[in-house]
Amino acid sequence: MTEQSIHLRVRRQDRPDSPSYWQEFKLPGHPDHNVVSLLMALREHPVTTTGERVDPVVWDHNCMEEVCGSCAMLINGVPRPSCSALVASLTQPIRLEPLPKFPVVRDLLVDRTRIDEGLKQVKAWVRIDGLWDIHEGAPRIGPNEWAANYLYSRCMSCGCCMAACPQFGPHSDFLGPAPLAQVRLMNAHPTGRYDARERLHAIMGDGGLSDCGQAQNCVRVCPKEIPLTTAIGELGRQTTVQMFKDLFGPS
After folding, report:
1. pTM of the full predicted structure?
2. Is-contact 93 48, C-beta < 8 A?
3. Is residue 105 located within the same domain as residue 189?
């Protein structure tokens, strides 16, 4: 099989506070290349189409199995993990840009701290210590509920949904769809339900659920096909019920 060259355009940035610029490269093609392996090959011979030898492109990756989410970037204008983006399926020139809405550290590497901050704000975890009613044994989850919860447990915090969301970004305090979906997941957990009220209050204020504009971009780009808009709809019902409990419940 004759190898064909791959035309690559990379949007680069030397420092967080420096302007971005484009560089173009051509590499020998390979039928099994994904974007990560393409960048690895470029790292060995970082020479532009004009013959200039430059610093290797900086990016992040880890698992290579679309599990960790660290390699997400903008590929031909679409936020997606680069490990599962096969070169053979991409239109050339392949344009690589850092994931938007997040601060650029260098080149294609971005700072996703804001995702972690959102998860902390909504307490997206289940406490393992506490005084739980376990005299009848551990609470059980039915197969239908388990299957529904599993869809949300697949989130890898890649940030693709946040990058595609028009309401999320440095201009807004909106938490974004990923932390909201984790509220839905944790509130459905038998132990996590004990903290459901606190989580709902966390998304009922500024930057919370009401800031969602229902653009549905998030569900279109999610690499794990998580039903994010379904979660947002369910949380809308939960927060409404919680509002009435706050108004008319015991003081």
Report:
1. 0.90
2. no
3. no
